[in-house]
Design goal:
The complex is a heterodimer.
Chain A: H1 11-29, H2 32-54, H3 57-74, H4 85-100, H5 126-141, H6 145-156, H7 161-168, H8 172-193
Chain B: H1 9-16, H2 22-34, H3 36-54, H4 63-79, H5 100-104, E1 114-117, E2 120-125, E3 132-139, E4 154-160, E5 162-165, E6 168-171, E7 175-178, E8 187-188, E9 194-201, H6 206-218
Helix pairs in contact in B: 1-3, 2-3
The chains are: A mainly alpha, B alpha+beta.
Bound molecules: zinc ion (ZN).
Residues 3, 6-7, 31, 35, 37-38 of chain B line the site of zinc ion (ZN).
């Protein structure tokens, strides 16, 4: 097990910086060449993500195409100060999957006058966001297998924590504490940098 | 606002993964609108999901065909000018944030309350979700939450006033997560009526019981 080294710039950090640059170009300049590079990186991963649940490659391909069309259409809304590219693309793929199941997921609206804004400064350096992505990835690799497994099921198998508990034959409290322990580790990995 | 009572990681994770049904999600999203702390946790979770996405297996040799299809779609899309959303009518800062405000059709002064007895009022909120019961409650100052029995989990989000549950005080933005192992008796604080959003598991009906049994088998 290796400790995340804050001075070490990994190849994945650099590729996250590159992905961020491409996405900003797509948003501002509508450049198909930049979008193609994003597509070649993310489309196979999104197809795999969609296949986990549907088990049907044709359906997964269609949902992937829908996701990438949404990436193209919404690229201008991506804010490099508020998150990294892979997280942003995950949320788009997740929402496409929710729509495909005709489910509803109410969301908050940041333009709403009753919305309470965050007054603590966020990481506004693009590279820091990309580095956060790298730190999260490294920290995920150090999670115990049982915690990692619960996170993977939650994000990819499309099931709630109570269903995960039932599937694993575990008490609800055990699954809840695995989730809490996993995110305590991930949060402390992120805080360690700041 | 100084929120002290937050969502558990388990509820936030269900929401981050898109696995929380509409009724629960309404309470979670309304708390998120009021709580920058939980929004930061949500972002960390979506970051973790992004990290997992990067590590998904990559199928070889499928990308060229997919890109040809995408390019054909983009040809059509580029011609379509993406219209900016029409500016919405400005809403005065109020008590109920979105998404809740749209669900009840307005802010506090616009609401039509139904009497529950003993000075308490409620508004049942319609969702497409049959697993939960969602309501806005108005509890008179100093009085307990009426008819308080429920099976399973309950989320209570305070929107105005405050309530006490044992030693704990819950004020605007605070959310209480209770399950049936916890005996709780919320009482509105003296001085101001307490308005809160309460989500409970719907009373189990025969049909939904059958659906629950079938779920793991059908994977629906
Ligand atoms: Zn919170």
């Amino acid at each position: 097990m290796t400790q995340p080294d804050n001075n070490n710039v990994s190849a994945t950090d650099i590729s996250q910086v590159e992905m961020m640059r491409l996405l900003v170009i797509v948003g501002q300049e509508r450049k198909v060449e930049a979008f193609e590079l994003l597509f070649r990186h993310y489309s196979p991963r999104i197809r795999s993500f969609m296949t986990v649940k549907t088990k049907d490659r044709q359906v997964a391909e269609e949902l992937m195409q829908e996701t990438m069309v949404a990436v193209w259409n919404k690229a201008a809304q991506f804010d490099p100060a508020r998150g990294n590219v892979s997280a942003w693309i995950f949320t788009i793929a997740r929402n496409i999957r929710i729509d495909a199941h005709r489910r509803k997921r109410p969301v908050f609206e940041i333009d709403d006058p009753a919305f309470v804004p965050d007054n603590t400064p966020s990481a506004d350096v693009e590279f820091e966001q990309a580095q956060d992505a790298g730190l999260l990835r490294q920290a995920m690799e150090t999670l115990p297998a049982d915690q990692f497994d619960v996170l993977k099921r939650a994000f990819f198998d499309d099931v709630s924590h109570s269903v995960i508990a039932r599937e694993l034959g575990l008490p609800l409290g055990t699954v809840k504490s695995r989730i809490r322990l996993a995110f305590e580790k991930l949060r402390s990995a992120l805080e360690g940098r700041r | 606002m100084n929120i002290k009572r937050h969502l558990s990681d388990a509820f936030l994770l269900d929401y981050a993964g898109g696995n929380l049904s509409e009724g629960w999600s309404l309470a979670v999203a309304t708390h998120l609108a009021l709580c920058p702390t939980c929004r930061r946790q949500l972002e960390a979770m979506e970051g973790a999901a992004g990290a997992l996405l990067e590590k998904m297996p990559v199928e070889a040799n499928a990308t060229d065909d997919s890109w040809e299809r995408m390019k054909a779609r983009l040809g059509g899309l580029q011609a379509i000018e993406i219209k900016p959303e029409p500016p919405r009518e400005p809403v005065k800062p109020g008590i109920l944030p979105e998404p809740l405000r749209s669900y009840v059709g307005g802010d506090l002064p616009d609401l039509k309350w139904r009497a529950l007895g003993r000075g308490a009022y409620q508004i049942l909120i319609d969702t497409g979700d049959r697993d939960t019961q969602v309501r806005l409650l108005r509890i008179p100052a100093g009085k307990p939450v009426p008819e308080h029995t429920h099976e399973g989990c309950e989320l209570t989000l305070v929107l105005a006033g405050s309530f006490r549950d044992g030693e704990d005080l819950f004020a605007r933005g605070d959310i209480e997560e209770a399950d049936d192992t916890l005996l709780h008796q919320p009482i509105a604080t003296e001085g101001e009526d307490c308005i809160c959003l309460a989500v409970t598991e719907a009373p189990l009906k025969f049909t939904s019981w059958i659906v629950r049994l079938m779920q793991p088998i059908l994977k629906i």
